[in-house]
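Pair request: fold both.
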Amino acid sequence: MYFKCDYHEETAIKLMNQLGFKRIEDNREYGSFCYLASATYKYEGLKKVVDEEGIDLDTLEQQMLVYSPSEMAMIRFGLQLFNSNIDDITIPDLMMSLDDENCQVVLSAIKFRFNIKQ
């Protein structure tokens, strides 16, 4: 799995820990959300919306109001990878707002979520 930096990896694991998992690989649905969401470097806000009960969607939605369009798109897509009924963001809408590094993160998240081997 591609991580943008150590902080990205560390915060993804911290979010998974808050959800009750030790590693990102322990749950592909939550793992894909945590991986994508933590790539936005919004850990301080994200840690308030995840716990062992799951993801607090109402609070997350309120927090996202001040995020950039690309940050919002990545988190929305992370939610869609978690549960396709939560969001309907399309791949073109997502990818148009991202730089190359974040596009690489999205591709890695898709491969991880659906267990696609390289």
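--- second member of the pair ---
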Amino acid sequence: MTLRFISFVGAIFVAVIAVIVCFTSIIFKLPPKMEGTSSLKFKPLSLKFRELIESGYERGAGLVVFENGKNVFDIVGGYADIRFEVPWSPNTITPIFGSSVLPVAFIFGLLKDRNLINESVAVRSYSEKFPSKYLTVAELLTHMTGYAYPTDQLSFFDIRDEPDNVVKALFKKHPTFPSGTPSFHFHTLDLIAGDIVSNVDIKNRPLARFFLEEIVWPRATPELSS
């Protein structure tokens, strides 16, 4: 009887706490904030952005769109720090993950247009260091090399300053997953892609330099150049 009473009291206590937490979150929910400018053409995007902020699905974000060199959408919304009610601003700094995926796709698209690379060809054809003779460039770009991340302890300075040695060390180890298995690249896509780019590029430029000189700078707006 005593155990049942304790269980009953415990259940009531948990229920009361849940109700308090629920009402507290409702009472102290911060009002949605959003500011910026948008062209009429991008009004649907503005409405979707507002929906994400007001629903609480997106706590804070900023989005800028350039079309033909013109800033057509520049809006921030939500909070950078909910605890201190700090709104998201154009100057809010945030970490970016997976930032090499899009640049690599743009670079390989450009290399294909210039007939410097074929996505159906084996990676080994462009990178002698790559262990597999059969894995294609297309499989690299769809994250199927199996080399999800370096197993050695590395710093970002190692990756930046000695990419060739890092790639060699990476390929001396067994893949994290069997080759051909879908698995995301953590800090390895840019290493493998960079080795390919420097080999097929007549100037042997590293990945970042190629991206800047061939894609970013030729299309740069004053905002990007500053």
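Observation on the second member. DSSP finds nine helices and four strands in the chain.
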